[in-house]
Specification:
Bound molecules: flavin mononucleotide
Distance between the termini: 27 Å
Largest sheet: 8 strands, parallel, barrel
Shape: globular
Strand content: 15-25%
Number of strands: 13
Length: 368
């Protein structure tokens, strides 16, 4: 098993045996690098057929042809948003981008847990910084929704100022922005989820958007490691602002479902299958608290069934990353087919009709 969707891409390219053999010998980060490079060079076949009308919808007033997104962290430097959308994603989120370039944590910092279809990462916002990414995004036409995920430099004197800089820089170059305060790998970052800190952050971020005079939707990405009191606090603060939506969730510091496996005790955030139930429950619990505010559900989606479950728990759209590593891009096609079947079986016309049908069951732990 390799940490790269490239195995799936190469399957499409019919050079499977060679590609697999070559990639199996690469460490996870090198395999990931090879995949992003292949995408950026246009070596990946585009989806040939248009998406079926059942998959079309909207989030924050933005129309999508399908509700499946590439989660942040895969294309941190905006090298391949166009290729990812052409491959079949309805949404592509690049970043996290910080104002200044930074190296991230020492390697190794990315670990496969193949027995659990999971990954642990402590990348630490390695990225090229705002300006390089902005140069890449200028003039790129992405055949899907483009999100830019913004963060703070690890050694920043003022985290909030870094998010404000992100809004100012990218407001005019994205369909939506994500304020990521939930990475476990930048010390102190998750503290921005607490009441007063969150109030100040969102106040300044939304003031920067108003100043930019471009009403780009701004979403807040939160951690799954929050109890109900913390969720109450976030919902209260968010609903008092004109924030446009939430992304639930980032990786977890928990190790449920992986104890005893190789690498399970590595420091960092856990993603993939073992995150599914926790992140879906938090999504439903937030849905109950924020009414119709748009939510993107992310965490452990690895099949048509789990994609459908995210929608039913209350997500208006979904994102995934880790499962792509294990399943390859054919997963996106399979999820689409499964969602079309679900829409038809439910007689609801489009995916919007599936949203929130099981929110209470997920929120209260009867599902998951
Ligand atoms: C290697 C790796 C790097 C990530 N980097 C980021 C990041 O820079 N910003 C961010 O908001 N989320 C990041 N994430 C979190 C994902 O966007 C997503 O929230 C999480 O992995 C759960 O989804 P999944 O189980 O489908 O992977 C990263 C995840 C992985 C596996």
């Amino acid at each position: 098993m390799i940490l790269s969707p490239l195995s799936g891409l190469l399957r499409i390219g019919r050079v499977e045996a060679f590609g697999r053999e070559a990639l199996a010998h690469l460490n996870p980060e090198l395999a990931h690098r090879a995949t992003v490079t292949a995408l950026s060079l246009g070596l990946v076949p585009a989806q040939e057929e248009a998406d079926p009308p059942e998959l079309a919808g909207e989030i924050c007033g933005l129309a999508f042809s399908n509700p499946i997104g590439m989660a942040a962290g895969f294309d941190k430097n905006a090298e391949a948003p166009r290729a990812l959308a052409a491959m079949g994603f309805g949404l592509v989120e690049v970043g996290t981008l910080t104002p200044r370039p930074q190296q991230g944590n020492a390697k190794p910092r990315l670990f496969r847990l193949p027995k659990a279809d999971a990954v642990i990462n402590r990348m630490g916002f390695n990225n090229d910084g705002h300006l390089r990414a902005l140069e890449r995004l200028r003039g790129v036409r992405v055949p899907g929704l483009l999100g830019v995920n913004i963060g703070a430099n690890k050694d920043s004197a003022d985290f909030v100022a870094d998010y404000v800089a992100g809004v100012t820089t990218f407001a005019d170059h994205a369909d939506y922005l994500t304020v990521n305060i939930s990475s476990p790998n930048t010390p102190g970052l998750r503290n921005l989820q607490a009441d007063e800190a969150l109030k100040r952050l969102l106040g300044e971020v939304l003031a920067a958007r108003a100043k930019a005079k471009i009403r780009v939707p701004v979403l807040l990405k939160i951690a799954p490691d929050l109890d109900e009191t913390a969720l109450d606090g976030i919902a209260r603060v968010v609903l008092a602002t004109d924030l446009d939506g939430l992304i639930v969730s980032n990786t977890t510091l928990g190790r449920e479902g992986v104890t005893g496996l190789d690498h399970a005790t590595e420091t960092g955030g856990l993603s993939g299958k073992p995150l599914f139930a926790l992140s879906t429950r938090r999504l439903a619990q937030m849905r109950q608290r924020v009414g119709t505010l748009p939510i993107i559900g992310v965490g452990g989606v690895h099949s048509p069934e789990t994609a459908l479950a995210k929608l039913e728990a209350g997500a208006d759209a979904i994102q995934l990353y880790t499962a792509l590593v294990y399943e390859g891009p054919g997963l996106v096609t399979r999820i689409k087919a499964g969602l079309v079947d679900a829409v038809r079986a439910a007689g609801v016309g489009s995916v919007a009709g599936l949203v929130g049908r099981s929110t209470a069951d997920w929120a209260e732990g009867r599902l998951g």
